[in-house]
């Protein structure tokens, strides 16, 4: 399993708060990774840095050995690092089909390779029956699926999912977990989650963040029995 | 080269005709037919007035493309129209160039100004009202320069004696000096512009502009270089506005500083807003109607028209955010 | 030597007036993300108030009438500002592009109403003091000294109020985080109204001050609003200090360029300078930490 993405001593400060404080780890090809941690641990900031949405103050992000530090957000997507936002960030005045068709174009124009067929992605995210519904008319759960669909249109090599199951029913959460597992056969997938049952179901390598630092990195079972992780979640650290 | 072709096929693939589009297309065809028959009944004076309005409609279409699709409002859009007109006038009367050269000069200067300013502003993240106001300032200052740089622009008087366009092709001779010929020329170009813009924007390319206009950050993380897309659209709109301005100079025969200025910039926003942003046929027809109305009202009193324009802005913002087209739609839904 | 002093004094005159116009714009922009295109009309209202008061024959001699206008104009400006805020601005919160269109409409209407009431010809106004004063070897009009002094005092007072009074603290809180400020019990709507009226009053005051130096016409304000926008953009949104810094930059550059170039070319160069500076310092000279920056994708 070759290394795809290297996060090296990344730091990001907001005013007096270190949102991320010297975090390092690597993501391999076709690896499934979960990032967990209590509220305010720096998970979303980390994902922002990994996707190029925010530039780190220190450290580096390397993709296949190449530094992406000074690259704009759209370049990250064109390298294959594609993200889903927290809380379903879709285009309100576009139908589901149009959103998907549009989403694939940026990367396709850059790479010269045709985007995936919209019908296939619609089937994957199970929104075929909602194909002509406007983004603003979709339910919160449907928007989550639509967002995942838009990222898939970009042919990601690393898929970054920020809270993909927030606002979803229990059944849909299980389906999302199955999709993440299936996608991990083709690409690397990084998931930020609060829902521990979801993370347990994925049963993959898990990174634990607390107060901007990475405090644990290992299989979910090992991590969930780690004393420091329990302290962090119970507020003892 | 092959890659460019692939890109074009991706960007401009045409989807099937939707229900709402069919209504728009019917309105467009009917309007074209009525306008094509107009010379049979209209007087020379009205024909010339309608021809000018058709050229102004091309100008309105250029703003609609930008404002309606990318939600980038340019409050000083007459700047580019005026540059096109002055380019034509200076090239033909001062430099002795043919009208074709004047057309290219006007378009090239307008596109360069837009590209330069757009590069600095759009890449710095300047958007929305910020962008709108800066372009307004540009048009204000350009008016002042045109009024004071007499040796080139003719000062307050402007430049007189811009020749009409004349050319021969396929054994046919076109003379812009002839009222009917120039009317049909303007009619053809206005509807051609509308057709091209409509085809481009109903294709996936239009979806990209819509995505950038409604949620730019999200579009960026999908791999779109949004600043570059906006810059291209801004430059293209400026070039199209200059094209309309250069043609306008040849039919009017004169250019003056007000072609760059606030009132024209204001009117073009009104035309687009009343017609319905992003609909193309709406702004085209609105330009013809409102221009006709403004000529009538201005002949009664000069200060009445700006007063009405002001009231129209308030009306649009509070009552008709989607223009007159929204009335049509509402009735259909009711 | 005396030449340099004159240049500096000319620059100070322009800077005082620009800052008075720009402060209101910057604060309202910072608080509500509203760009008020009718702001320039308050300058015009101020200038016309002066001409009206001086022309009224039942009143005092023009020199004395000037002082009456200086008090009256900000009151009228504040009143008109309150009406506009109540009738239009507050209804369009969160719709920045619509606000700009609506205020533009108001600006057109106000200009034409003034023209219909007073005619299109320039109005006659008289400065309260005449003659020249000698300073460091420079021979300089007394009235311009008055502008610099009055402008300086008002600007300093505004800066102080913004920095040290409870009102200023509340205002800054609303600019930085409206929702949070409201949840802490600050009446953001009332503050906005007061700030809007205050900014309008300052612009009207600037109108009175500059009227004796300018041609009092209906589009007087249009010239100043364009410059005031450069000031706000360069200085930073929602920051009084930024407005002053931006005024120094724009006013200074324009005064210097006016010596070498045609005024319209000088304005064009200042605009070009503003555009290039925006690229280099997108948040302005004194960033105001305004929510407006986020909206513009500038955060």
Your description of this structure?
The complex is a heterotrimer of chains A (237), B (334) and C (299). The two termini of chain A are 35 Å apart. Chain A is α/β, with parallel strands linked by helices. In chain A, 36% of the residues lie in helices and 27% in strands. Chain A is globular and about 50 Å long. In chain A, strand 7, helix 6 and strand 8 (188-192) form a beta-alpha-beta unit. In chain A, helix 3 runs parallel beside helix 5. Chain A has a six-stranded mixed beta sheet, with helices on both faces. The model of chain A has no long low-confidence stretch (mean pLDDT 91). With 334 residues, chain B is an all-alpha fold. Chain B has helices at residues 2-12, 19-37, 44-70, 78-94, 99-123, 128-148, 150-153, 179-202, 204-214, 216-221, 226-252, 262-275, 281-300, 304-318, 324-333; strands spanning 166-169, 172-175. In chain B, strand 1 (166-169) and strand 2 (172-175) form a beta hairpin. Chain B is globular, with a radius of gyration of 20 Å. With 299 residues, chain C is mainly α. Helices cover 74% and strands 3% of the residues of chain C. Chain C has twelve helices and two strands. In chain C, strands 1-2 form a two-stranded antiparallel sheet. In chain C, a hairpin with a 2-residue loop joins strand 1 (132-135) and strand 2 (138-141). In chain C, helix 2 packs parallel to helix 4. Chain C is globular and about 55 Å long. The interface between A and B is medium-sized, with 36 and 22 residues.
Number of domains of chain C: 1
Q: What spatial form of chain C do the alpha-carbon principal axes imply?
A: globular
Oligomer kind = heterotrimer
Q: Look up the CATH topology of chain C.
A: ABC transporter involved in vitamin B12 uptake, BtuC
The SSE order of chain C reads: HHHHEEHHHHHHHH
Q: What is the number of helices of chain A?
A: 9
Structural class of chain C: mainly alpha
What is the overall pLDDT average of chain A? 91
Main traits of this protein?
B: 334 residues; mainly alpha; ABC transporter involved in vitamin B12 uptake, BtuC; two-stranded antiparallel ribbon; 15 helices; 2 strands; globular; C: mainly alpha; 12 helices; 74% helix; 3% strand; disordered C terminus
């Amino acid at each position: 399993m070759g290394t795809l993405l290297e996060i090296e001593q990344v730091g990001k400060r907001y005013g007096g708060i270190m949102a991320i404080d010297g975090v390092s780890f690597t993501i391999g090809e076709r690896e499934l990774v979960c990032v967990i941690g209590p509220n305010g641990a720096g998970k979303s900031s980390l994902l922002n840095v990994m996707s190029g949405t925010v530039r780190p103050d220190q450290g580096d992000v390397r993709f296949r050995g190449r530094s992406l530090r000074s690259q704009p957000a759209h370049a990250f997507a064109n390298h294959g690092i594609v993200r889903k936002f927290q809380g379903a960030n879709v285009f309100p005045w576009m139908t589901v089909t149009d959103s998907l068709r549009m989403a694939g174009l940026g990367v396709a124009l850059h790479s010269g390779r045709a985007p995936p067929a919209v019908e296939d992605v619609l089937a994957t995210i199970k929104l075929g029956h909602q194909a002509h519904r406007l983004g603003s008319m979709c339910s919160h759960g449907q928007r989550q699926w639509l967002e995942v669909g838009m990222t898939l249109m970009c042919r990601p090599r690393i898929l970054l999912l920020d809270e993909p199951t927030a606002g979803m029913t229990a059944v849909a959460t299980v389906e999302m977990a199955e999709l993440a597992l299936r996608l991990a056969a083709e690409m690397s997938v990084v998931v930020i989650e609060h829902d521990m049952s979801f993370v347990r179901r994925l049963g993959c390598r898990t990174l634990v963040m607390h107060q901007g630092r990475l405090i644990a990195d290992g299989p979910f079972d090992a991590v969930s029995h780690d004393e420091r992780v329990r302290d962090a979640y119970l507020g003892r650290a | 080269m092959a890659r460019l072709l692939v890109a074009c096929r991706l960007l401009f693939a045409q989807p099937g005709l939707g229900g709402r589009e069919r209504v728009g297309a019917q309105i467009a065809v009917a309007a074209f037919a009525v306008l094509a028959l107009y010379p049979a009944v209209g007087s020379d004076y009205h024909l010339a007035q309608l021809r000018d309005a058709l050229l102004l409609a091309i100008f309105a279409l250029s703003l609609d493309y930008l404002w309606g699709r990318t939600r980038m409002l340019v409050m000083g859009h007459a700047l580019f129209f005026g540059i096109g007109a002055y380019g034509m006038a200076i090239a033909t009367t001062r430099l002795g160039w043919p009208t074709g050269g004047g057309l290219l000069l006007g378009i090239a200067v307008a596109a360069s100004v837009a590209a330069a300013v757009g590069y600095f502003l759009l890449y710095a993240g300047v958007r929305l009202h910020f962008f709108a106001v800066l372009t307004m300032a540009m048009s204000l200052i350009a008016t002042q320069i045109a009024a004071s740089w007499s040796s080139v622009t003719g000062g307050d008087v402007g430049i007189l004696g811009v020749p009409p366009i004349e050319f021969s092709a396929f054994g046919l001779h076109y003379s812009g000096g002839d009222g009917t010929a120039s009317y049909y020329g303007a009619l053809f170009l206005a509807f051609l512009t509308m057709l091209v813009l409509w085809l481009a924007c109903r294709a996936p390319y239009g979806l990209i502009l819509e995505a950038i206009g409604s949620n730019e950050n999200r579009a960026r993380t999908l791999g779109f270089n949004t600043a570059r897309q906006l810059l291209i659209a801004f430059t293209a709109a400026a070039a199209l506005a200059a094209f309309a301005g250069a043609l306008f100079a040849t039919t009017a025969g004169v250019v003056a500083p007000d072609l760059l200025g606030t009132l024209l910039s204001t009117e073009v926003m009104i035309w687009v807003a009343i017609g319905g942003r992003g609909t193309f046929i709406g702004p085209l027809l609105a330009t013809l109607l409102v221009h006709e109305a403004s000529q009538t009202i201005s002949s009664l009193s000069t200060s009445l028209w700006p007063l009405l324009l002001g009231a129209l802005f308030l009306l649009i913002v509070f009552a008709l955010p989607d223009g007159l087209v929204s009335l049509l739609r509402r009735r259909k839904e009711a | 030597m005396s030449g340099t002093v004159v240049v500096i004094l000319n620059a100070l005159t322009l800077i005082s007036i620009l800052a008075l116009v720009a402060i209101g714009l910057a604060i309202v922009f910072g608080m509500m993300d509203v760009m008020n295109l009718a702001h320039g009309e308050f300058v015009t209202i101020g200038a016309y108030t002066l001409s009206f008061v001086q022309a009224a024959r039942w009143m005092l001699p023009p020199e004395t009438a000037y002082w009456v206008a200086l008090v009256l104009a900000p009151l009228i400006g504040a009143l008109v500002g309150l009406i506009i805020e109540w009738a239009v601005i507050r209804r369009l919160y969160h719709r920045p592009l619509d606000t700009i269109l609506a205020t533009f409409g108001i600006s057109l209407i106000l200009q034409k109403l003034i023209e219909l009431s007073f005619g299109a010809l320039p109005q006659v106004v008289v400065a309260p003091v005449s003659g020249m004063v000698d300073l460091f070897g420079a021979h300089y009009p007394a009235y311009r000294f008055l502008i610099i002094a009055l402008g300086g005092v008002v600007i300093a007072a505004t800066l102080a109020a913004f920095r040290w009074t409870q009102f200023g603290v509340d205002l800054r809180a609303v600019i930085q985080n409206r929702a949070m400020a409201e949840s802490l019990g600050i009446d953001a709507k009332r503050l906005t109204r007061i700030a809007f009226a205050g900014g309008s009053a300052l612009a009207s005051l600037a109108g009175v001050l500059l009227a004796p130096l300018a041609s009092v016409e209906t589009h007087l304000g249009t010239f100043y609003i364009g410059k005031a926008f450069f000031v706000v953009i360069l200085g930073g949104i929602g920051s009084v200090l930024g407005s002053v810094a931006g005024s120094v930059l724009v006013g200074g550059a324009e005064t210097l360029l006016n010596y070498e170039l045609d005024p319209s070319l000088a304005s064009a160069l200042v605009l070009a300078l503003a555009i290039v500076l925006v690229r280099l310092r997108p948040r302005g000279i004194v960033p105001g930490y305004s929510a407006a920056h986020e909206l513009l994708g500038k955060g």
